[in-house]
Structure formats: structure tokens, C-alpha cells
Design brief:
Distance between the termini: 18 Å
CATH architecture of the largest domain: Alpha-Beta Complex
Oligomer: single chain
Number of domains: 2
Strand content: 25-35%
Largest sheet: 7 strands, mixed
CATH topology of the largest domain: Quinone Oxidoreductase, Chain A, domain 1
CATH class of the largest domain: Alpha Beta
């Protein structure tokens, strides 16, 4: 493959609404030293796509500033963090025997080479992503899943949603037989949290809308509480002994209402702010009960390897809500923003 070849891609040239998603013909990227070129079979959507497009992440000291995941975006940018496909070519220094292998790509850009390094960038934000026919990635981020029985759509659903979920569960030290409360349980990360927590042997109480409760229960929730009613009251009735770990992608008012639900030494893990980022709570409920409030952004290399192992063993089965052709990325993001679905939305380049 030569760099003179072109491919279809969808990119953004500035922040804005779905209308800024522009299908274009661009050059096929050439893998640099230590990189691989992946032919994209499926790319899954995430809230990260919406917020990066909108510039909704803010910056330290200026929460309303338009910004990408970790800072200003270098436009134009091809979106898409969650990629499944096959290796089409390799760059200098990479084993050519990898060509043809089926892979899922770890989209994180880490701050160091260690196994527990922190993610400080993301494909589709700090470098081009998978809303395209081809994408380059560091060779060590392209994980071989050739033996997995999961479909390309399911594999593409894993990196951000399931990676974020597994990072939350690991950082929250969730153990077998503990009781866990999952917020936003019908969303991509929420459904992943339900599935992984159940696989770990925890008792799972999920917060969702009534119309989606059966889908959330089918994913592995033991109990589902209706977010339209008093959540704290429902949780107390369902788990009078208290909650060991809260896995929260909503934040907002839920934090103040929910902290008293924690058992002594409980852990509250936050990885999103769908309900609002400006949070107020009674700090006494934190320190008097030796509770921990833990921030969790995505995953580490160690977490991602655990996730790949789950995928190869077939221990998790992502739910696919809808699939669109790449050219309809704007329609797909509009459906994602409406939040009327259960599971993941994917694009097919």
C-alpha cells in the first residue's frame, strides 16, 4: 500500500454540532516506525465523540472553555476511538507476520511506558481515529483478538466503554460478593459495568429508566431502580445493609444523595458527569465513614490486557444497538445523543 492511495474518512475542522462532521477523501496514512496500519472493520461511538466534537471538556481553571479530551484539538481531526479491524501494513521495526491479524486497538495515549501509566490522550482527539477506512496506531496498542468469537462490532465496542468500566472496577477494588451500585446503567459504560461486575461475582444494583430496565436486567443486573423516582429510597429498600462500591458515570446530584448509602470504608468511583460536573456534598459523609471518592479516566495498559483476555475467552458480550455506514456518522451521533437506545452504536467504513 502506498501513501498515494486515498480513503474515505469523516473528520471535524472545528467544534460544533453534528453538521461539522464532514465526509472527505484523504490520503491513507503511512505507518511510522513502531506503528501498524489497521483496516477498520468497525468503529464504535462514545460520548467522548460528542464531547470532543462539541469541545465540552473544559480546561483546568476554565471549565467552560472549548477543549478536546485533554486540551486544544489540532484540527482537522478524524474522530473515533474504538477500532476493530485487521493489520494491513506495518512500519519499520514491526514484525511483518502481524499483517492479517485481527486486532482491537487500545486508543489511549499514555504518559509513560509503565504498565500502570495514566492515559493523557485519546485517538480521535489527540491523534486521528477510526472514522476512516484505515488508521495508524502504535504496534503495541493493536491487540491480537484473532481467536475471539466476538463480532467486529462487539470488539469495536470494547476499548472506551469496557476499558473505562474495567478501570473503574479495578480502581474501586470490587470483590466477589460485594454489593455494587451502577449509575447510567443502560449506556455504553453502564452496561459494561453491569456485565463485568456480574462476571466478577458481585451483586449488581443498577440505576436506569423504567423502559430500559429489562434490557439492563438481561445484561446481568440483580436489581434495577428507576432513576425517575427517589433513588436513595429505592436503594435503601433494595440494599438495607448498604453499598460497598458505587460505579458512577452520572455524578451531579446523585453524589450528595448517594454518599450516605455507602457502607463503612465504601468506595465511590466517578468516570463521567452526565448529570452535571458542579457537585456539592456533605464532606462529613466522606471522612467520618472512611469512604473514598475515586476519579477514574479510562484504563491502564494492565487493565486493557485484562479486557482483551475477557474478549478472547468470550466472558463478555457487548450489546449492539445500531449500525450505520461511515457516511452517516452525523446521524449516528444524533442517535447517540438522544440516549433512547441500549447498547453500542457502530459505524462501518
Amino acid at each position: 500500500m502506498t501513501t498515494s492511495e486515498t480513503m474515505r474518512a469523516v473528520r471535524i475542522a472545528h467544534h460544533g454540532g453534528p453538521e461539522v462532521l464532514e465526509p472527505v477523501d484523504v490520503a491513507v496514512p503511512s505507518p511510522e516506525a513502531g506503528e501498524v496500519l489497521v483496516r477498520v472493520n468497525a468503529v464504535a461511538l462514545n460520548n467522548t465523540d460528542l464531547w470532543t466534537r462539541e469541545g465540552a471538556y473544559g480546561r483546568p481553571g476554565d471549565p467552560r472553555a472549548r477543549s478536546g479530551w485533554r486540551g486544544p484539538i489540532d484540527f482537522p481531526r478524524i474522530q473515533g476511538a474504538d477500532i476493530a479491524g485487521r493489520i494491513a501494513a506495518v512500519g519499520p521495526g514491526v514484525d511483518e507476520r502481524l499483517i492479517g491479524r485481527r486486532v482491537v486497538v487500545d486508543p489511549a495515549i499514555y504518559d509513560s511506558e509503565g504498565p500502570d501509566a495514566n492515559p493523557v490522550g485519546l485517538m480521535g482527539s489527540e491523534r486521528d481515529g477510526g472514522y476512516a477506512e484505515y488508521v495508524t496506531a502504535p504496534a503495541d496498542r493493536a491487540h491480537d483478538v484473532t481467536e475471539s468469537a466476538l463480532t467486529d462490532d462487539q470488539l469495536a465496542s470494547l476499548p472506551t466503554a469496557y476499558g473505562t468500566a474495567l478501570g473503574m472496577i479495578e480502581r474501586g477494588r470490587l470483590r466477589e460478593r460485594e454489593t455494587v451500585l451502577v449509575s447510567g446503567a443502560s449506556g455504553g459504560v453502564g452496561l459494561a459495568l453491569v456485565q463485568i461486575a456480574r462476571a466478577r461475582g458481585a451483586r449488581v444494583i443498577a440505576i436506569s429508566t423504567g423502559s430500559k430496565s429489562e434490557s439492563v436486567r438481561a445484561a446481568g443486573a440483580d436489581e434495577v431502580v428507576d432513576r425517575a423516582r427517589d433513588i436513595a429510597e429505592q436503594v435503601r429498600a433494595t440494599a438495607p445493609e448498604g453499598i460497598d462500591v458505587v460505579l458512577d458515570v452520572v455524578a451531579g446530584d446523585l453524589v450528595a444523595a448517594g454518599l450516605p448509602l455507602l457502607r463503612e470504608g465504601g468506595r465511590w468511583v466517578v468516570a463521567g458527569a452526565l448529570g452535571g460536573y458542579d457537585v456539592h456534598f456533605d464532606v462529613r459523609r466522606l471522612y467520618l465513614h472512611n469512604a473514598q471518592l475515586i476519579g477514574s479516566a479510562m484504563h491502564t495498559r494492565t487493565h486493557f490486557r485484562l479486557l482483551v483476555d475477557l474478549a478472547v475467552r468470550g466472558a463478555i458480550h457487548p450489546v449492539i444497538a445500531a449500525a450505520y455506514p461511515l457516511e452517516e456518522a452525523a446521524l449516528a451521533q444524533e442517535q447517540l445523543a438522544r440516549r433512547g437506545h441500549v447498547g453500542k452504536i457502530v459505524l462501518h467504513p
